[in-house]
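FAQ

Q: What does a record look like?
A: Structure on top, sequence underneath. For example:
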């Protein structure tokens, strides 16, 4: 028998215990899978397993994330949605009273994101745009509570900072998945992380957590930030 219990710290996130214990979110679009995740039923509700090897946010939670600023009603700007793995779980968490603006630049991937996620969820607004040019979509997004960024670009911290300056509210928070090898394939990852964090700090973003995503993701950290 499947046992489903709320996460001990974070609202909108659950534990599913069957053969093993896995993270999950309550589905906002029952009956649909986004990336082959397992679906669980409990009464009239459906829950989706949240796979840490496919989602850096799930990996961060399992690695001891202390601060989850994404909750019911949150306005989120998500840079680099890809096909919608993590953003679909964020959509579940923020619920119908929240909104997720999903930015993706690759046209083929955006088509999949629309089909798999935004067409089935009223709280997700797809934006086909280049995250390096936030001025092209800032008027659509307005002000957000949380900025989430998972973009494989050499200047990830600058890209994040540019978006924060235009759209993240004062006192808002951010999650930046730093991929060391996308920034510099030669330097040691720790050197790359420090350099990116310095850029963030110079732009008014205060790191409050830096979490290694090993063993789920190699040479990755999740940086949790507060915007002054």
């Amino acid at each position: 028998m499947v046992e489903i219990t709320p996460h001990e710290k974070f609202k909108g996130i659950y534990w599913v215990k069957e053969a093993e214990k896995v993270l999950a979110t309550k589905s906002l679009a029952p009956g649909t899978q986004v990336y082959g995740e397992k679906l669980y039923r409990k009464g009239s509700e459906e829950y989706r397993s949240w796979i840490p090897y496919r989602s850096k946010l799930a990996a961060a939670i399992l690695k001891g994330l202390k601060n989850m600023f994404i909750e019911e009603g949150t306005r989120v700007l998500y840079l680099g949605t890809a096909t919608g793995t993590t953003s679909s779980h964020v959509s579940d968490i923020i619920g119908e009273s929240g909104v997720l603006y999903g930015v993706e630049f690759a046209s083929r991937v955006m088509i999949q994101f629309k089909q798999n996620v935004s067409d089935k969820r009223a709280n997700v607004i797809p934006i086909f745009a280049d995250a390096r040019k936030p001025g092209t979509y800032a008027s659509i997004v307005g002000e957000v509570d949380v900025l989430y960024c998972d973009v494989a670009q050499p200047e990830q911290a600058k890209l994040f900072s540019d978006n924060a300056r235009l759209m993240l509210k004062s006192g808002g928070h951010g999650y930046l998945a730093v991929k060391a090898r996308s920034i510099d394939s030669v330097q040691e990852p720790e050197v790359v992380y420090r350099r990116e964090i310095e850029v963030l700090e110079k732009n008014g973003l205060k790191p409050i957590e830096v979490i290694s995503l090993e063993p789920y993701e190699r040479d990755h950290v999740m940086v949790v930030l507060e915007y002054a």
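Q: Is there anything notable about this one?
A: The mean pLDDT is 94.
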